[in-house]
Amino acid sequence: xxxxxxxxxxxxxxxxxxxxxxxxxxxxxxxxxxxxxxxxxxxxxxxxxxxxxxxxxxxxxxxxxxxxxxxxxxxxxxxxxxxxxxxxxxxxxxxxxxxxxxxxxxxxxxxxxxxxxxxxxxxx
Length: 124
Hints:
Layout: E1 2-5, E2 8-11, E3 16-22, E4 31-37, E5 44-49, E6 56-58, E7 66-71, E8 76-81, E9 90-97, E10 113-114, E11 118-123
Parallel strand pairs: 2-11
Antiparallel strand pairs: 1-3, 3-8, 4-5, 4-9, 5-6, 7-8, 9-10, 9-11
């Protein structure tokens, strides 16, 4: 199970950190990812940390504005948003995959476990 927290409201240019704790999974054995979905839009890949290496990858639309990280000792993943923009307003989801292949890491269907979503609102 994944439990997300840390969403909220922030003014444009502000920062916010989301957290997501995984239970029942062995740390470092999975790829952890963040997606977001704005009203009327499809779910969008934000970033992930690849299993074993922890190397991070980001969606083209969010590069530079977000940092994905994880603490394997705590089995917790993080998403740091810096310099938020109104277009970053969305419901943010954490997700985990144990068998995702590299070419599909940006696809929501590749992830088996999902958090409940946490709302981020960036006002102008």
